[in-house]
Amino acid sequence: MEPVLKQLTILDTIIRLEDLELYDFITEAGVLPYYCLSWVITWCSHDLDDLDKITRLFDLFLSSNPFMVVYFAAAVVLSRRNQVLALPCDTSTIHSFLTKLPKDIDVDSLCQAACELEEKYSVFEIQCQSTIALDQVSAINRFERDWLPVTSLKDLNNTIEDHILPILQDKDERKPIELVSPASNKQHVQQSKSILQKLQQLDKKDAFLYTLLTVGAGVSLVAMLMSTSDLMRYV
């Protein structure tokens, strides 16, 4: 879960850079970005029951950097700013509101907003801004090097054999990438580190719960796909 917790911490940084008022309100309420954990680890399939919307999101996530789901999660939160700011500045109220991914979300517009966030804040830049470094061998950091050049099945097999399998077989401790010092003030740097530490503490308590969540979401998605006759015709 450690890489995911780092991604959630970086999500907070995106919100801060895009909407400081919203970020300060959520921070003042003491709400951690755990509210979107299921969105990130299940690509929203745990929270949506509309197969068209789920497949639209999967199209985006499969064709983009693995970090795209975090940009999408940030876009969802930013799109709900007025509703959030109208709520009492209370931890349970705001957390409960943000946890519920609206069933009627405009997926296409949010996908566009997520792509715009990616264009505005590159994967490397947003890590620098948050001072939270993902692993050097993370698919997020190696996406452009390993996956974008792939144009054929042969390229894919070569990439897996020459680059991916050695990473999986390497037993050495993984190291974070080197970041460029951001222009952020010390308060924001400390806030990012504090958020990550709190998420890590919560994760130790709830690790089993989130394992069940991930497995359950996967089973549910497979069941949805199998029950859709339109899709089964093409299998």
Topology:
Blueprint: H1 2-18, H2 20-28, H3 37-42, H4 51-62, H5 68-79, H6 81-85, H7 91-99, H8 107-120, H9 123-130, H10 139-147, H11 153-169, H12 186-226, H13 229-232
Structure description:
With 235 residues, the chain is mostly helical. The chain folds into three domains: 1-132, Ypt/Rab-GAP domain of gyp1p, domain 3 (Cyclin A, domain 1); 135-184, no CATH class; 185-234. It is built from 13 helices and no strands. The protein has helices spanning 2-18, 20-28, 37-42, 51-62, 68-79, 81-85, 91-99, 107-120, 123-130, 139-147, 153-169, 186-226, 229-232. Helix 1 (2-18) packs across helix 2.
- The average pLDDT value, as a whole number, equals 83
- Span from first to last CA? 33 Å
Note poorly predicted spans. 231-235
How would you describe the shape? globular
Helix content: 55-70%
Order of helices and strands: HHHHHHHHHHHHH
Structural class: mainly alpha
What's the number of extended β-strand segments? 0
Count of discrete alpha- or pi-helical segments spanning 4 or more residues = 13
Tell me the fraction of residues in β-strands, as a range: under 5%
Largest sheet: none
CATH arch. level architecture of the largest domain: Orthogonal Bundle
Superfamily at the CATH H level of the largest domain?
A: Ypt/Rab-GAP domain of gyp1p, domain 3
User: In angstroms, what is the radius of gyration?
Assistant: 18 Å
Number of domains: 3
CATH topology of the largest domain: Cyclin A, domain 1
CATH top level assignment of the largest domain: Mainly Alpha
